[in-house]
Amino acid sequence: MWLSYGLLALILVAGVAYSISARKLTVIAALTGAAVAILVFAGAGFTGLAMMTTFFILGSAATSVQSKTKKDLNADQKGGRTAGQVLANAGTAALCGILILVFPAQTQVLQLMIAAIFASATADTLSSELGTVYGKRFFNIITLKPDLRGLDGVISLEGTLIGVIGSVIIAVVYAIGMDWTTNLIWIIVAGTLGNLTDSVLGAVLERKNLINNDTVNFLNTLIAALFMLLLYFVYNLICK
Questions:
Q1: Strand, coil or helix: what is 81?
Q2: What's the rounded Cα separation, in Å, for the pair 125 and 95?
Q3: Band of residue 89 on the pLDDT scale cut at 50, 70, 90
């Protein structure tokens, strides 16, 4: 027990120090991330922490790819991410961690929801950051007509597939820590649906300045979690 807490503390200190020194997060954002990580750990253990860390590493790496190109498109991330951005991407996972402590009987489904949240957040980050760079043809997700890359609600086949790969990576991390079952498929599905929902919200609401990007990111992770909840109960209703 104490060894686990010691390892957790070491990981958190290292993560906070790196995030601040590398200017990936502001000081407040790094501390907020540590608090979120503690709640995720409380609910899903080191597997939950590994999924959150994987999201952070992949997202940071993707953000760094051809930043000049993104700057020209006004699609780059300027400066360290804020506490609001941290909560937008991982706040729902922290909430699930709290719910596991309150309702331990629902641990399995809530842990799957945490996985879906990070699958969606990772898919969204990778598809937007790398899709902008490597996409060939860009479409408005609502009209499916050609549109300008970098605009809210605009997707490409390449970016969408990269997003699916992001969900797969998170699902594999979950499977390594928890179990290799059909849950892996549901995590990928929920993560992909959450990512596509992000694009729909961007096209319908964000482009009209009705909501901001943080709200879109929060809603896409929340919807991914709800997709997982629905898939879990439907699967168990039909198959068990």
A1: strand
A2: 21
A3: very high
Q: Range with the lowest mean pLDDT among 27-31, 78-82, 94-98?
A: 78-82
d(CA 138, CA 131): 9
CA angle 40, 46, 48 (to 5 degrees): 40
Going by C-alpha positions, the residue among 188, 187, 214 that lies closest to residue 201 is 214
CA-CA distance, 168 to 95, in Å (whole number)? 23
Scored b (16 or more CB within 10 A) or e, 105-119 reads eeeebbbbbbbbbbb
Grouping H, G, I as helix, E, B as strand and the rest as coil, residue 164 is helix
In this prediction, what percent of the chain has a pLDDT beyond 90?
70
Q: Which helix (H) or strand (E) holds 222?
A: helix 213-239
Q: Find, among 110, 122, 141, the residue nearest to 39 by Cα.
A: 110
Cβ-proximal residues to 146 (8 Å cutoff; 6+ apart), any chain: 137, 138, 139, 140
**Quick one: which of 105, 146, 134, 113 has its CA closest to 40?**
113
